[in-house]
Amino acid sequence: MRYSFNAGDLRLSLNAFIFFKDNEYFNPIVEGYTLFGTQLNPQLVYYPTKELRLEAGVFIWKDFGNPILKQVRPTYRATWTHKNSQFIFGNIKANLNHEYIEPLMDFERVMLKPLEEGVQYRLNTRHVFLDTWVDWLRQEYPGVSYQEQIAGGLSSSFGLTGDNSRVQLSVPFQFTARHHGGQIDTLHIPIQTIFNYASGLMARLPLHGSVVQAVRVNAYGLLYGDHSSVFLLPFNNGHALYLNGTLETRYVDLMLSYWQGHQFYAPFGGTYYQSVASRYGTPGYSEADRRLLLVRLLRDFRISDAAALTVRVEPVYDFNRSLLDFSFGVYLNFRQEWLLGNVGRRVRVGQ
Questions:
Q1: Three-state DSSP class for 226?
Q2: pLDDT of residue 351
């Protein structure tokens, strides 16, 4: 939903998310589990100027079947928008907003890692999308018994064709990094640094049919590199191929994907793509080569300007094990803002 803003506006914002995802998985990389709960984020929003947005509120996370709140955290974000650029400080635009492919950024992070805190720069023009970000995962203090933890990356796409071209072509480049280290803790264990890269070609052909509206084809090559001083994982480097074809229809989006990975590991990526078992899998298990065929049926139901219901059905076939697993998810999103009033049209900086 789009709103018009004026300097001095004071608004109330509410983001509500109810999620259900059932993973019927039966393999040692990741076994089955269910995510079912709700997340709520009310915030006050103030515009000192038309380009500067300040948000402060509270984030509440409740898993169904658990009487104790999973998480209660303050949220704060400062966003300066200038032409096609955004500079964001505090709670950055996380997860799906980065527009990573799923092998690099797991869809489930929407539910399991909803908040990212750090700094972000976003550029969005007719032919260029760029998102660079740092998520400060864990702050280190003198004498603590844990390491400093930092994540970051870059997600981008560059258009190759003009607005009047029948086929829309673009080149994506994506990068993620995770670092565990620091010098002032009491552990004195090795520093760990992991990089992931992905690039390829994306094509979209609009059809404007009554049923089939567009066709998309994407191809990615991916790399994994462990640049740690001491290697703690089963594999130090790896690579993968990720191919996608999508039919955008009036009723549902149908996506077919093929994955072939060799010693591939991405710490933020979808667990099913990895060659190393996740926390939901068999401890210590690894599988050097993975070949998967995935099907996704996606449908968004618009309830109102502020609310939408999303349904996802995702069977996946593991060639190595001749095994068919699947997941099913339903997600309700509500986002709305209300203008409380205008409390002033001037902001003084540095006083």
A1: strand
A2: 46
Q: Per-residue pLDDT tens for 149-179?
A: 999 999 999 999 988 899 999 999 999 999 9
Work out how many domains the chain is built from and give that number. Answer: 1
Residue 35 forms part of a structural domain = no
By DSSP bridging, strand 148-159 and strand 168-181 are antiparallel
d(CA 160, CA 172) in angstroms, rounded, equals 11
Contact 70, 63 (CB under 8 A): yes
Q: Is residue 276 part of a domain?
A: yes
Does the residue 318 lie in any domain?
A: yes
Structural domain boundaries, residue 118: 80-326
**E-only strand ranges, 182-278:** 192-206, 212-226, 237-249, 253-262
- Say if 258 falls within a structural domain: yes
Instruction: Provide the strand spans (E) within 102-147.
Output: 117-124, 128-138
Residue at 149: amino acid letter: Q
226: domain CATH number is 2.40.160
- Calculate what percentage of the chain has a pLDDT beyond 70: 97
